Known about the structure:
By secondary structure, this protein is of the alpha/beta class. Helix content is 38%, strand content 13%.
Amino acid sequence: xxxxxxxxxxxxxxxxxxxxxxxxxxxxxxxxxxxxxxxxxxxxxxxxxxxxxxxxxxxxxxxxxxxxxxxxxxxxxxxxxxxxxxxxxxxxxxxxxxxxxxxxxxxxxxxxxxxxxxxxxxxxxxxxxxxxxxxxxxxxxxxxxxxxxxxxxxxxxxxxxxxxxxxxxxxxxxxxxxxxxxxxxxxxxxxxxxxxxxxxxxxxxxxxxxxxxxxxxxxxxxxxxxxxxxxxxxxxxxxxxxxxxxxxxxxxxxxxxxxxxxxxxxxxxxxxxxxxxxxxxxxxxxxxxxxxxxxxxxxxxxxxxxxxxxxxxxxxxxxxxxxxxxxxxxxxxxxxxxxxxxxxxxxxxxxxxxxxxxxxxxxxxxxxxxxxxxxxxxxxxxxxxxxxxxxxxxxxxxxxxxxxxxxxxxxxxxxxxxxxxxxxxxx
Length: 427
Ligand SMILES: *Cc1c(COP(=O)(O)O)cnc(C)c1O
C-alpha cells in the first residue's frame, strides 16, 4: 500500500478507484452475509485459502475500502477497522501478548487506554510497566523483561499533550526484539507518520479528527509490515507457529507483511466481534476526505488561541506543544513540522471555581467530553471526568483543578478568542 502520492491526494482518493460506470462514492455494502455458488467456494474462504467475504463480523467490503485508505495514509502494509479506538488498542496489544506476558507503555496516554491496560488486561494476566515518556534510554531499556512483547505510546498524548520521542522508543523496542505500537489519534497521519520514525504498528481512535464531525465512533489498526516476526519466533508463537483454530496455518509464513492484521481479523474479530458498521465506515470516509484541510485549520486555531492565552493575565499557564517555549516544542518540530493538533490546555487563575465560572460563560465553545471535532469544545476535568478526586489527587493525576482542556475546531479563530475573552471578563 506504499505510494508516492501526497497525503492530501490519499485523503481524498485513497482506497477506492471506481471502474467504468461504478459509483463515484464508496458504496455502503449493508450486508451481513455474502452468497456463494458452492460449499467448496465458501470452504476455501474459511480455510483462508482464498480471500473474499462471507460474514461482516470478520470483514466487510466498505470497511476494507476505508481501512485501505488509512493504510495508504500511514504508509502501511495492511490495516483493519475496529468498532472503536478502545477496540483498536485492545486488539493491537492482545494480538501479540497473552496471559503471562508483559508490555511497556508510556504513562502519558489516554485515560481509557490506561484503564484497559492497568485494570482489564491485567485481569487477563498481561502485566504493564508504565514509564515516563521523558525517561532516559537507560531507564527505558531497564524496563524490559524476557516476557516483554511490545512497547506502546501516543504521538501526542490525550490529554497531557506530551510528545513522544518515537525514535527513542523504537530503538529500545527493536533492541529487545519487540514492536513499537503508536496511538496516532491526535496527530493523524496528516501531521505525523510514525512508521517513518521506526514505529511498527499504528492505532487510531477514528472517532476524533479522522471522522471529525462527531458522527461515528470507530478505530483502526495499521501494520507497517516491517517487523520481522519470524526473526523473534520464540517471542511470538501466535504468529510463528501453526494456528489450530485455522487448520494449522502459520500466519507469519503464509501471509508475510499481512500476517499481523490477518491474525487479528481471523482470531480477534472472529471471537470478539468489535466490528465497525459499513455505515460508520462511510461516515469515517467522508471525514477523511477533508482531514488534510481540517488539520491545518485546527492547528492554526490552536496556535492563535494559545498565543492569546499566554498573554492574558487571567491565565495561569498554557500547554500547547506548538507554542515556542513549550517543553515539547523541539520534539514536536521534529516529528510534526506542520503542526501537532487542535487541543490546548490551560489554567485559569483562581483555580477550580474560576475555571467552572469561565466555562459557564462560554457561548460558542461547548462543554463536551469529546475532542478533535469540527466544532470547538472544552472540558473541565476536575468537575467532569475526574470529579471524584480531591485537589491533591487531581495534581497527582496531572489534571490540576484549574485545568481547562480546549479542543479548537475549524471556526475562525477570532470568534474563538472573542468567546474566550468575553468569558474571562466575567471573572
Ligand atoms: C478517544 C481516544 C481513544 C479511545 O477511542 P474511542 O474511539 O473513544 O474508543 C484512544 N486513544 C486516544 C488517544 C483517544 O483520544
